[in-house]
Amino acid sequence: MAHTLGWGLIGASNIAREWMIGAMRAQPGNAVVAVMSSIAERAAGYAAAHGIPAACDHIDALLADPAVDAVYISTTNELHARQAIAAARAGKHVLCEKPLALNLADAHAIVDACHAAGVVLGTNHHLRNAATHIAMRDLVRAGAIGRPLFARVFHAVHLPPHLQRWRIDKPEAGAGVILDITVHDADTLRFLLDAEPVSAVALTPPSTMAHGAIEDAVMAALQFDNGVLAQLHDAFTVPHAGTGIELHGTAGSIVGRDVMTQRPIGEVRLRNAEGERVIEVVPHNLYERSLACFNDAVLGRGQPAATGDDGLRSLATALAVMEAARSGQRSAVQLA
């Protein structure tokens, strides 16, 4: 085994159960050694179900465990900053779910704390790890569509009942489609275009799934610093739309279908003056690639797939979309 990395799970979550525990165990020398939930019984049951040696109901106990070298944070969004900063100060590497925080001040505090402690900070923006998205980025960088002009993201899905809960009724936890899905779109477009959003406009319809003023759908447009205009359609309420990305340039277009997903599926096509062709893509597990990049960063061989700065910048874009939807005005993407 190349090295040993003991993972502590902060949050006994669905995403850890469905994706992250397996991805961690797929890395040479990695082990899931502890789990924390604020409910002791849930922590103990989760640990027993997944073969995790230790369980606790307080972050201090998990961070005091010498077997824990790194933490994966998948609690509700309002807890990320406090937990990530505590982990950094305890000398633990941090992989945090998106959004990195609920506001820019907290996101900066996380980045600063990890930098000061000399630990690796990653944001678990899984989509940039997809083989389809890597292929699309390579095509853009190779000039396959000339100068990029426009982009469209289709990320309207149906949020299943077991994931609805706080996402549709707890604004204090960062509920709503913008911090859950639009932040992914922002990160994916930043990755594909090697460019940064500078402003946003947005509209939200009356909610049909979420409660109160929480948005469960949004249509937005972003302007990037390279001139690209991007259209986004995100929703919790659309069961059969399918997902995708289109990138259109002066010499061609890239069309990705069924690519905004946790699963290693989807198809990429390139259209240009020579016609249309399918781009060969070898699929892989998105989360395993995320963990492999994180392990390399711990070993000093690169960066996480999405860094803390990526998490901050993608959050800033989502917050601009949120402000634009609420104000009805164009909103600048601000990093401070």
Automatic annotation (TrEMBL):
Alphabetical UniProt keywords: Oxidoreductase
GO molecular function: nucleotide binding; oxidoreductase activity
Domain named Gfo/Idh/MocA-like oxidoreductase N-terminal: residues: 6-125
Organism of derivation: Leptothrix cholodnii (strain ATCC 51168 / LMG 8142 / SP-6) (Leptothrix discophora (strain SP-6))
Domain spans labelled GFO/IDH/MocA-like oxidoreductase: 135-255
SUPFAM superfamilies associated with the record: Glyceraldehyde-3-phosphate dehydrogenase-like, C-terminal domain, NAD(P)-binding Rossmann-fold domains
Protein name, per record: Oxidoreductase domain protein
A Pfam family of this chain: GFO_IDH_MocA_C3
